Description:
The protein is mostly beta strands and 276 residues long. It is built from two helices and twelve strands; from the N terminus they run E-E-E-H-E-E-E-H-E-E-E-E-E-E. It has a five-stranded mixed β-sheet, with no helix packed on it. It has a four-stranded mixed β-sheet with strand order 4-6-10-9. The protein has a three-stranded antiparallel β-sheet with strand order 1-2-3, with no helix packed on it. The model is unreliable at 1-71 (pLDDT under 50).
Amino acid sequence: MSDRVRTGGDENRMGANTADVSSRANVVAPRDGGIRRRVAAFAITVAVVCAASLPMAVAAGTATDAMPAKASVAAIGTKVGGLSPDEWTVRWWRWAHSFDDGQRPYQDPDGSRCALGKDEDGPVWFLAGTDGRSEVRRRCQVPAGKHLLVPVINMYFHAPRIGEYAQRCDQVKAQVMVNNDALVSAVTVLDGKALPRPARFTSRCFDPFPEGDEEDRKHPGPYHAAADGYWMLLPPLAPGRHRLVIGANYGNDGDADFGRMIQNFEYELQIGEPAI
């Protein structure tokens, strides 16, 4: 849903599929869609929308019982509901952080949690990537008239604003940029038609945790978080069934942890109520 991680002042790093414990960093079961490193008491979340081990294979799909889908995306910079696309990505990350571990959107194996935590009256419907543990195919019913925000491949990082492990906003942003400069491929197929290349959005710094969430907020006080990556913001699709298939990968040999990440997932979407 996938993803660069650094441990503040500690440069000791681990691969995404290891469970080894070093003297300085411990890789534990992911709570935010990837691995999490804890150095002392400092927890850093790994981005969630990139898979670490899936082969990238984008298959064409065919929609049935629907008007033809337009192979288009919202223009870069186009506001939806008065918000820019990069601001919608901030809301996406806060939405993803609003669930308990095991219930997070990128941990959904089949789409059964597709509607959880959604603003039924809002103009944008969030879809999720994966945590990189399996090739995911989901079914999801979406109210008619909603834009779709889809993470294609993405990196995320957060750190406290105060204390021993504090980082400034510009430092946090620097953590999420590098692999996105080394994108090899990002392919989105809607109803058998390739869509334009996804847009790259860099978020502002924000506090990712819901107010009162002390489980993830390992240090007291506010946090800086930032995300950088490639997203699709799709205009509302025609009522009926649609198939959305996404594959993407980085090609940065300089990052042993996340420089070769791959993302691969698909959705079978029912827009509006199914026909009787």
